[in-house]
From TrEMBL:
Organism encoding this protein: Floridaenema aerugineum BLCC-F46
The protein, known as: FdhF/YdeP family oxidoreductase
A Pfam family assignment: Molybdopterin
SUPFAM superfamilies, A to Z: ADC-like, Formate dehydrogenase/DMSO reductase, domains 1-3
Domain Molybdopterin oxidoreductase: 127-494
UniProt entry keywords in alphabetical sequence: Iron, Iron-sulfur, Metal-binding
Ranges where the Molybdopterin dinucleotide-binding domain occurs: 657-758
Lineage: Bacteria, Bacillati, Cyanobacteriota, Cyanophyceae, Oscillatoriophycideae
Length: 764
């Protein structure tokens, strides 16, 4: 094949432009007027003034990990650019500004009644305002005092180290995260499960092996220098809208955006951002995708090996770079060359022309950023998916220079900060040594339970005490029946939260379930910090709650954790109550967490910073050799079961599809803010998005109500919605669809394969 191939790159783009609009109510672009209308509606509510005050508060956004807010102001990013808030921010803040739950509510409604609520209904109950407990045999949650909470916690955490565990989300601060892991390791336990185990763990595991660092090597500053972004398995318009501003600006400077996703997300084709009002309001939005590839779900490795093969054939690889800065490159090149095009195209479902067009765009660009979200990680071969992306970046020389590199997109505002603080079962050796010195004894070497291992251990009755710092452990897991049973085998569970969620009513402990209300990020009485997905540390100012002390007995997570630790340890080996001063916590973080030295003086300097040792602008990496390590990635075997595997006859009306689960437009993690999804034309939570040809071939009709059956569960009365999703694939909302399937997890990271779930869609 010649260096200048004789094909038209734009022909592959026509695949997107000629897709039928299956629902006339679909918007022609993401964002736009509906976002502005939503802001106006929220502004005109009784809490509108408080909403705007909070949006301008100097604290990091509660939503995704793109890091707006902090000391530069609520609407400003780390590059001092304004208008960087999005509808997700407004949703999250508006939810936190709800009034306190009526004090008689939990006396009036039994746990059986509360279990009938949806996720949205749980969230709309309002703010939790005093500690609650559900005891064995009780039908209602009842109020208890904080003193009773600490007495129960003291006893519960005196159980053997291997029988206590925590689970956390990124809703809290670096300081709370650091104290959580410090408390657990002071007790000799490494059971620090985290929501990242269910999403980006393959990114962390894979990137650490390749580059020696498990986070993005691309800063916002670096992204602004890119001339090509390859965005894989991400619905950024709904989940990371701030990223869309950067893609718009990239297209304005004649850059290219390659989208890889089995489903055409309209916002990835065209997006109208309020930060660009002329284009948003007068021109219908900005073009995003240069090329859109709809691959078979789970075939990402095949596609990236195809890209590597095409880059080799077009003589667009950087052999001198590979020889100087990588190990294992020749094996990767050989594997790509030896893999036949027939195997690649059959596995990925993409044509040679499409793959070659994408490879040409990548290979002829100067600075390429490879970005991905959970469409890459939530597979049984998630780590291999990450390896294959990293390999492609390396063979084109796009790692270790400004404007290029690998960029996992974190979906929760401080989930990466939790990992940095040591809330992980894969603790770095240097942190382990520093913590051992701080605690005055070696940190336990007993392997800890990640999230799926925690559920399995609880199922077997191996956990006595569980503390959940935010999150929704019940609903976030696959096989909700198993999750519910597992949690019911734990004697004591503490849920630390600001608002009720499904887990508080379904994830009930064997003997006592406690719900502990805390301040949110912008209400904390002390300064805290958070970390963005691009390694930027934000400083959050103190704040006050709209809930008055007379109606709410709230404390901070920092106070909660330090008081438990004090009652367990006194002042040995640390003055735990002194750690209620978060500036002291930051001193300890600076001494024990690599790259965080500047946090020791952030109170005085007010200087937010990029963490050292993670942004690679030179091809010298954080591995022992300084070279990137490349790994051969075997093609996945993507087999489909038959109807009979689901106990359904082949003659029955229906079809077997590959289901991917994900968030709706108005959703953050398991919290649902809006029932429908305007982008996909899905009017409620009980829909399945299918390709029109699949619907026709199965003898079904759009809007028909069907059964959807997985390997462990079934849902009925599910409405079929036709959309621009690849033939053979389907989409349903998380967490409702989690009841369908068991945990087919990646063995190296423990992350379940939410994005490739075989299901049968049928009628009885």
């Amino acid at each position: 094949m010649n260096n200048s191939p004789d094909f038209d790159v734009n022909r592959a783009v026509e695949l997107v432009e000629t897709q039928p609009n299956d629902n006339e109510s679909h918007p022609s672009a993401g964002g736009g007027l509906p976002v502005i209308q939503y802001w106006v509606e929220k502004t005109l509510t009784p809490t509108g003034l408080k909403l705007w005050q909070t949006l301008n508060h100097k604290s990091a956004c509660l939503s995704c990990a793109w890091g707006t807010g902090g000391q530069k102001g609520g609407f400003v990013n780390e590059a001092s650019e304004y208008l960087q808030r999005c509808a997700k921010s407004v949703e999250a803040i508006a939810s936190e500004l709800q009034p306190a739950i009526n004090r008689e509510f939990f006396q009036k409604y039994s746990i059986t009644q509360l279990q009938q609520l949806t996720s949205q209904e749980c969230d709309r109950l309002g703010r939790l305002n005093y500690p609650l407990i559900l005891r064995t045999g009780a039908s209602h949650y009842s109020r208890i005092t904080w003193e009773e909470v600490f007495q129960i916690a003291t006893k519960a955490f005196q159980q053997p180290a291997q029988r206590i565990a925590t689970y956390s989300s990124g809703r809290s601060s670096n300081e709370a995260a650091y104290l959580l892991q410090l408390l657990m390791r002071s007790l000799g336990s490494n059971n620090l499960a985290d929501c990242s185990d269910l999403c980006h763990a393959p990114s962390t595991v894979g990137l650490k092996q390749v580059f020696g660092s498990g986070t993005s090597m691309v800063s916002l500053e670096s992204l602004k220098e890119s001339d090509c972004v390859v965005l894989v398995g991400s619905n950024a318009p709904a989940n990371h809208p701030r990223l869309m501003n950067e893609l718009i600006k990239l297209r304005q400077r004649n850059g290219k955006v390659i989208i890889i996703n089995p489903q055409i997300e309209i916002g990835l084709v065209k997006f109208a951002s309020p930060a660009f009002p002329i284009k948003s309001l007068l021109k219908g939005g900005s073009d995003i995708s240069t090329l859109y590839l709809q691959l078979i779900p789970g075939s990402d490795v095949a596609l990236f090996i195809g890209l590597q093969k095409s880059l080799i054939e077009q003589d667009l690889i950087k052999k001198d770079y590979l020889a100087s800065y990588t190990d294992g490159w020749q094996e990767v090149i050989n594997y790509a060359q030896q893999t036949s095009w027939e195997t690649i195209t059959n596995t990925s479902g993409l044509s040679i022309e499409e793959i070659t067009a994408a490879a040409y765009l990548i290979g002829t660009s100067e600075r390429v950023v490879f970005a991905w979200a959970m469409g890459i990680t939530q597979h049984s071969n998630g780590v291999d998916n990450v390896f294959s992306i990293a390999n492609t970046a390396l063979i084109t020389g796009n790692a270790g220079k400004l404007g290029a590199g690998t960029m996992p997109i974190r979906g929760h505002s401080n989930v990466q900060g939790f990992g940095s603080m040591g809330v992980t079962v894969r603790l770095k050796e240097e942190i382990k040594q520093a913590l051992s010195q701080l605690l005055g004894h070696p940190v336990s070497e007993t392997p800890g339970y990640d999230t799926r291992a925690l559920i399995e251990a609880a199922t077997e009755g191996k956990i006595d005490t569980l503390l959940c710092l935010g999150g929704n452990l019940y609903a976030a897991n696959p096989d909700l029946k198993q999750a519910k049973f597992a949690l019911s085998q734990i004697p004591t569970i503490f849920y630390v939260a600001t608002k009720p969620n499904l887990g508080h009513f379904h994830g009930l402990a064997q003997h006592q379930t406690l719900i502990l209300p805390v301040f949110n990020r912008f209400e904390n009485p002390h300064q805290t910090t958070t970390e963005s997905g691009n390694n930027f540390v934000r400083l959050n100012d103190p704040g006050t709650s709209h809930l008055q002390p007379s109606e709410a007995e709230l404390i901070s997570e920092v106070e909660l954790l330090t008081e438990i630790a004090h009652r367990l340890h006194g002042e040995s080996p640390i003055n735990w109550r002194k750690l209620q001063d978060t500036s002291y916590v930051r001193e300890l973080i600076a001494k024990t967490i690599p790259g965080y030295q500047k946090i020791a003086t952030i109170d005085k300097t007010q200087e937010e910073f990029t963490i050292e040792g993670r942004i690679f602008t030179q091809p010298k990496f954080a591995t022992s050799s300084g070279k990137a390590q490349m790994f051969v990635t075997p093609l996945p075997q993507l087999n489909l079961p038959s109807k009979t595997n689901f106990g359904i006859t082949e003659e029955s009306t229906g079809i077997v599809l590959i289901l991917g689960t994900g968030r709706s437009y108005g959703q953050h993690n398991t919290v649902v803010y809006q029932q429908g999804d305007k982008y996909r034309g899905m009017p409620h939570r009980h829909c399945i998005l299918m390709n029109r040809l699949d619907v026709q071939n199965a003898g079904l009709q759009e809007h028909q109500r069907v059964y959807v059956k997985g390997d462990v569960g079934e849902l009925d009365n599910i409405e079929i919605i036709c959309g621009t999703i690849r033939e053979g694939a389907a989409f349903m909302f998380y967490p409702e669809a989690n009841i369908l399937f068991s945990a087919n997890s990646d063995r190296r990271s423990g992350t379940p394969a939410y994005k490739r779930v075989p299901v049968c869609v049928y009628v009885k």
